[in-house]
Specification:
The protein has 387 residues and is α+β, with helices and mostly antiparallel strands. The strands form four sheets. A four-stranded mixed beta sheet has the order 2-1-3-4, with no helix packed on it. It has a four-stranded antiparallel beta sheet with strand order 5-13-9-11. The protein starts with 6 loop residues before the first strand and ends in a 15-residue tail after the last helix.
Length: 387
């Protein structure tokens, strides 16, 4: 549409639609009015409650994400556009036919038969276990001497099962993995503490639950990991600013968020980018002041991050699902998150409205600033124009 010169004149952002049909499904809709001619008065209809009534907001431009911002189209990026953000990757993929994995009861039964295997069992987490504190385990045999495995017949039998499953595959890559049945199909386990980020999360939460995990906890390919993360990264990724970005550009599984590195994370404009822009547009004294202000902002953010972690620690028996359910979220945790949001806003220099549309419009401007500084090979591709 953009390539054909079409402009959006008005848009209703996401709202919930229902009908009188029996067994009706929940449907989320948008309404878009567009045309080839220009329109001076553009309007975005926002829904504070997707089941409620909209309020109209005048806009200078309505882009494909239905916010008042330039016409930007995000494409998959292999690397973060901000050179200061750490790499996010998937966890490890078992590809084992289930022979290396155990639920709580399965682990107990296995150890009854093979008690010496206890040192080879590690906690395993995907998005579901991570958020809901569900117990799952795996055999983690990386760097284990072969003679030790041969003395554990129940482990050896499971490795035979993995080998058979992989050999029966029609995929050449999987067949080749049959040569190393004691290992996960793909190993990307962090060597130190890492920040875990679920691939799938409920849309009902104000914040996607994320947390630091010890390297002994094995993350599957359904859980993202950031090895080089610190409290600053934790704060930004669990902030309302990042959540506004997620709600606008993230894919969906039914109505749940389906996070991705290529579109959502790698294209996200981090607040530390302001120093890069400043260094190209200000004199030396102003740049020094900008870096000093940013340093103070980071310190405030780290304090706010610790406050969130401390608020969680007061409820040790609650899962992340319990803590971030909008109906059961503890007041002290909500208050800590609100303070964290203010600290992140200060780092961005954001002073706009506390709405997703306003935040995302601001972030798209940051995105354009950042991508204008990228080398040609790293720049996002523009949509092709039809001849």
């Amino acid at each position: 549409m953009l390539a054909q010169g079409i402009k959006i004149h008005f848009a209703h952002r996401t709202f919930s639609w229902s009908n009188e049909a029996r067994g009706k499904a929940a449907v989320h809709c948008v309404i878009i009015g567009f045309g080839l001619q220009g329109e001076a008065d553009k309007t975005i209809y926002e829904y504070a409650d997707i089941k409620g009534e909209p309020h109209a907001v005048k806009a200078n431009n309505i882009n494909p994400y239905l916010v008042d911002a330039p016409d930007v189209l995000l494409t998959k990026s292999r690397n973060p556009i901000s050179k200061f953000s750490p790499t996010m990757i998937f966890g490890s993929m078992p590809n084992d036919g289930g022979f290396l994995l155990f639920n709580k009861d399965g682990r107990i039964e296995f150890l009854k038969r093979e008690p010496k295997a206890v040192g080879f069992l590690r906690v395993l987490m995907d998005s579901e276990e991570f958020i809901n504190s569900k117990e799952r385990w795996c055999l983690w045999l990386e760097n284990t001497p072969p003679n030790e495995l041969k003395n554990l017949p129940n482990i050896f039998a499971r490795l035979e099962g993995v080998k058979m499953v992989r050999e029966a595959s029609t995929r050449p890559t999987t067949k080749s993995l049959a040569k190393t049945p004691s290992l996960f199909g793909e190993i990307r386990q962090p060597k130190s503490q890492y920040l875990a980020f679920p691939e799938i999360s409920s849309e009902s939460r104000l914040y996607i639950p994320i947390s630091f995990l010890d390297s002994s906890v094995i993350a599957t390919n359904k859980l993202y990991t950031i090895s080089a993360a610190n409290k600053f990264h934790f704060s930004v990724l669990t902030s309302s600013t990042h959540m506004a970005w997620v709600r606008t550009v993230c894919g969906r599984l039914k109505s749940d968020y389906q996070y991705s590195t290529g579109i959502v994370y790698n294209n996200f404009p981090w607040p530390d980018s302001r120093c890069v822009v400043s260094s190209l547009t200000r004199d030396a004294e102003s740049v020094t002041e900008a870096f000093a202000a940013t340093s103070r902002s980071y310190q405030n953010i780290e304090v706010a991050a610790q406050a969130v972690l401390d608020a969680r620690a007061i409820h040790p028996n609650a899962s992340l699902a319990d803590l971030y359910d909008p109906l059961t979220m503890p007041a002290n945790l909500l208050k800590a998150h609100q303070a964290l949001d203010k600290a992140v806003d200060a780092a961005y220099g954001y002073k706009g409205a506390n709405t997703d549309a306003a935040r995302v419009a601001f972030l798209f401007e940051r995105y354009q600033q950042l991508t204008s500084l990228l080398p040609v090979a790293d720049k996002p591709k523009k949509p092709r124009k039809k001849s």
